Every structure is written in structure tokens, then in C-alpha cells.
Amino acid sequence: QVQLVESGGGLVQAGGSLRLSCAASGRTFSTWLMGWFRQAPGKERESLAEISWNGGNTYYADSVKGRFTISRDNAKNTMYLQMNSLKPEDTASYYCAVRRAGVKEYDYWGQGTQVTVSS
Asked: How far apart are CA 42 and CA 6, in angstroms?
């Protein structure tokens, strides 16, 4: 059974940092693209970052570019999101997901981890 589990969320003051992890199990995703999303109450889900299978290509939303860094360790079947210079508007539930190359839709999603940034 495929499972994605996020961890690392929590409460942090504005300007602080958090590192989220997304651990995958049930199969290897070394050839799949992996991405981070977030959703705040009353808002649509937002795509934040995506990383190619070997980490050679990354994408960032303008809202997090320069502050967040996506990375992955295929040996551990794990993806990370380093979040620096956090702002209160970064408060949301953060989700990881994976998709196959050439397929637009994400196949598997995690259950989410809450990030709260206080001002």
C-alpha cells in the first residue's frame, strides 16, 4: 500500500524556519516527480514546489521563491521542504504528492502537516 507521510510542521514565529519531510512507502518513487502544496482555510490549494526524479529540475511558486527549497533523497524515498523567512501568510496545511513523468495529475497524496506562523 502506497503511503506518503508528512512531518515537521508546527508553530514558529515570523522570520523563523521549518523543515518538512515527506516519507514515501509502499513503492519506490525514484523516477517520479514530487511536489509540495499547501491549503489555508477558505483558500484554494496552492502548488508550491516540484522536483524532478533526480533533483536536477525544480519549480517554485513566486510566493515562496527564494525562501523555500525543495530537495529529495531517493535512497531514503523522502522529499524535503526547507522553509526560511516564514511569514504569517505561510500558515496552512502542507501536503506532499507524487506524479509520474508525462502525467499532469498527481497520483498519491499525503495527509498533510500544519504549519502556523505567528506574527
From this structure: 22
d(CA 27, CA 84): 31
- Grid look-up 523516477 returns 31
Q: Is 90 helix (H, G, I), strand (E, B) or coil?
A: helix
In terms of Cα–Cα distance, which of 55, 60, 46, 56 is closest to 95?
Answer: 46
Give the separation between CA 91 and CA 39, rounded to whole angstroms.
9
Grid cell at residue 5: 507521510
- Tens-place pLDDT, residues 52-70: 999 899 999 999 999 999 9
Q: How far is 68 from 81, CA to CA, in rounded Å?
A: 7
d(CA 76, CA 53): 13
φ/ψ (deg, to 5) at 55: 80, 5
- Would you state the pLDDT for residue 29? 86
The sign one gets for the Cα dihedral 82, 84, 87, 88 is positive
